[in-house]
C-alpha cells in the first residue's frame, strides 16, 4: 500500500500537467493572430526587395525571385531621405520629451492638489478628446503663422505638447501614489519641486514608459498636421514624404520606393518599444484603465 501510493500520486500529477485541448486551441489561435499581425511587415519587406515592387508585378508571392536593393539605392539617391528621417526623429524625440514633462506635471497637480474648480478643469480636459483635429486645424495654423513658425519643426512640436490622453494616464497613475510619502517629504523640509522630483518621480518609471511609447508613436506617425505646416521638401517628415512619392514620375517604381522607405521607418518605433517594453506593460496594468 505504501509503495503504490507515490506511483499513483505521480501518475495523477502527470495527468493534471497534460495540456487540455482548449489550451492547444488557444495557443493555435494566438499563433495565427501573431502571423496575421506580422504578415504586412513581411510583405512590405518582400516588396521593397522586389524589382519594380510587388504591387506592380501582377502576381502575389511570398519570396522575391531576384531580391535586390535597387529600390533603396534609387530612392536614397534621388530624395533627401536622411533629412526626412532626421526631421521625424527630432520632432518625435523633442515633442515626446516635452509632452511627458507637461503630462507628469499636469497629472500630478490634478491628482494630488485640492483647489477650487479642479473637477471642472479636468472635465474640460476630457471634453477636448472628443474634438476632432479638423475643427482646430485652421485656428492652430493661424496661430503658428502669426508666430512665424510655419515650415519649421517647432510648428509641429509646440501645438502637440498638451496631450490630454497623457495627462489622463498620468493622473490615473499618480492617484495610486500614497499621500503619506509626500507629507513625510514636506515634514522633512522638502519643497514642492523637491517632493515631486525626489519622491514621486522615482516611482513613475512605468508611467514614463507608457507616455514615451504612446507619445513617440503618435508623433512619428502623425500626418495631417505636418502636412499643413511643413512646406519645403527637405523639411518634411517621413509620413508626409511617403505620400509625395506615389505620384513622383522620377521613379521607375514609386511603390518600390515607398516600401523601401517604409521598412526603414519601422525601425525607430521598434527600438523605442523594445527599450520601454517592460515599463509599458507595468504602466498599463497599474493605471487602472478599463
Automatic annotation (TrEMBL):
Protein's UniProt name: Sugar ABC transporter permease
GO CC term, one of those recorded: plasma membrane
What biological-process GO terms show up in the record?
Answer: transmembrane transport
Pfam family of the protein (one): BPD_transp_1
Which PANTHER family does the annotation name?
ABC TRANSPORTER PERMEASE PROTEIN MG189-RELATED (PTHR43744:SF12), ABC TRANSPORTER PERMEASE PROTEIN MG189-RELATED-RELATED (PTHR43744)
On the tree of life, the source organism's domain of life is Bacteria
Against InterPro entries, the record matches this protein to:
MetI-like, MetI-like_sf
Q: Does the keyword Membrane apply?
A: yes
Where does this one sit in the cell?
A: Cell membrane
What species does this protein belong to?
A: Arenivirga flava
Give the family this protein belongs to, as stated in its UniProt record. Answer: Belongs to the binding-protein-dependent transport system permease family.
Amino acid at each position: 500500500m505504501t509503495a503504490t501510493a507515490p506511483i499513483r500520486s505521480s501518475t495523477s500529477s502527470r495527468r493534471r500537467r497534460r495540456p487540455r485541448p482548449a489550451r492547444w486551441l488557444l495557443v493555435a489561435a494566438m499563433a495565427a493572430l501573431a502571423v496575421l499581425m506580422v504578415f504586412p511587415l513581411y510583405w512590405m519587406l518582400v516588396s521593397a526587395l522586389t524589382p519594380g515592387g510587388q504591387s506592380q508585378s501582377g502576381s502575389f508571392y511570398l519570396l522575391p525571385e531576384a531580391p535586390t536593393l535597387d529600390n533603396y539605392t534609387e530612392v536614397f539617391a534621388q530624395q533627401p531621405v536622411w533629412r526626412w528621417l532626421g526631421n521625424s526623429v527630432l520632432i518625435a524625440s523633442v515633442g515626446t520629451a516635452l509632452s511627458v514633462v507637461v503630462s507628469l506635471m499636469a497629472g500630478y497637480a490634478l491628482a494630488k492638489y485640492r483647489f477650487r474648480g479642479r473637477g471642472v478643469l479636468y472635465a474640460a480636459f476630457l471634453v477636448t478628446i472628443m474634438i476632432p483635429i479638423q475643427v482646430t486645424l485652421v485656428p492652430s495654423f493661424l496661430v503658428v503663422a502669426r508666430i512665424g513658425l510655419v515650415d519649421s519643426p517647432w510648428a509641429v512640436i509646440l501645438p502637440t505638447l498638451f496631450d490630454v490622453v497623457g495627462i489622463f494616464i498620468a493622473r490615473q497613475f499618480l492617484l495610486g501614489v500614497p499621500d503619506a510619502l509626500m507629507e513625510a517629504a514636506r515634514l522633512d523640509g522638502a519643497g514642492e519641486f523637491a517632493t515631486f522630483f525626489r519622491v514621486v518621480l522615482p516611482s513613475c518609471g512605468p508611467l514614463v514608459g507608457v507616455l514615451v511609447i504612446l507619445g513617440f508613436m503618435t508623433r512619428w506617425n502623425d500626418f495631417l498636421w505636418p502636412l499643413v505646416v511643413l512646406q519645403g521638401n527637405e523639411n518634411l517628415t517621413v509620413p508626409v514624404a511617403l505620400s509625395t512619392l506615389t505620384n513622383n514620375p522620377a521613379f521607375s517604381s514609386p511603390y518600390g520606393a515607398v516600401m523601401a522607405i517604409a521598412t526603414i521607418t519601422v525601425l525607430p518605433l521598434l527600438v523605442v518599444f523594445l527599450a520601454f517594453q517592460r515599463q509599458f506593460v507595468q504602466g498599463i496594468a497599474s493605471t487602472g484603465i478599463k
